[in-house]
Amino acid sequence: MGLFYDYYYIVLVLPAMLIAVAAQIYLKSIYKKMSNVNSLRGLTGAQAAYQVLAHYGITDVRIEQVAGTLSDHFDPRDKVIRLSAPIYRGSSIAAIGIACHEAGHAAQHNQGYLPIKLRNALVPVTNLGSALGIPLALVGFMLGWQPLITFGLVLYAAIAVFQLVTLPVEFNASRRAIRVIDETNLLEAEEQLGAKQVLVAAALTYVAALVVSLANLLRLILRFNSRRN
């Protein structure tokens, strides 16, 4: 049938991509819902994140506002938590949950959390695998050189490994956030349920991304193997 008739894409990757799309739609739905519910205490996301940092005794991390939606992240190189405007200035349950989650990442770095160290160490290999994995495998295929195919697929597999390691990092940051929210009464008990919903929905997008990567990897392995046979 030829290399470019990709039956495995249809049966493996396409369903995985649909799962990823569904996860994104669910996240946006929960985020929108909880963005419209203001917390009783009226703290902004930035204020809540500062309280999480204070809880862990972290004094060298800044919090600043950035453009975008759901563009929130912690940059360990500059030691800054970057929050989008609705999160930085907002006092919704979603804003507080997301801001505290990012502060949870700062706490992970501060305490030397092993999975986040491993994830950071994998970044160069993952970038290399993303750029060269499939091209090397294709070159190996065209040359009929199996070792190059294998090397390319191993490089590409680094993407799935990176996303697998990302899961405990994200889940742990959320657990830290919810624990501090509870212990410092940043949100009432009922409000905490809403924050948990937002963070679980966000975590599902990482799970879906892993599923897509694994489906792609399996597809490539089966595809090249079927052609070789």
What's a concise summary of this model?
Helices cover 75% and strands 6% of the residues.
> Portion of residues in helices?
over 70%
- Give a quick account of the main beta sheet: strands, pairing sense, barrel closure: 3 strands, mixed
Low-confidence stretches: none
Structural class: mainly alpha
Q: What is the average per-residue confidence, as pLDDT, rounded to a whole number? A: 91
> How many domains make up the 3D coordinates?
1
The backbone outline, from C-alpha atoms, is elongated
Count of DSSP strands: 3
Quaternary: single chain
Strand order of the largest sheet: 1-3-2
Treating each run of at least 4 consecutive H or I residues as one helix, how many helices?
7
Radius of gyration: 21 Å
Give the N-terminus to C-terminus distance in angstroms: 13 Å
Structure description:
The protein has 229 residues and is mainly alpha-helical. The protein has one domain (7-228). The protein is built from seven helices and three strands; from the N terminus they run H-H-E-E-E-H-H-H-H-H. The two termini are 13 Å apart. 39% of the residues are buried.
Task: Give the SSE map.
Elements: H1 7-35, H2 45-55, E1 62-66, E2 73-75, E3 80-84, H3 85-88, H4 93-111, H5 114-143, H6 146-183, H7 189-228
Parallel strand pairs: 1-3
Antiparallel strand pairs: 2-3
Helix pairs in contact: 1-7, 2-4, 4-6, 4-7, 5-6, 6-7
What distinguishing features does this structure have?
7 helices, single chain, 229 residues, mainly alpha, three-stranded mixed beta sheet
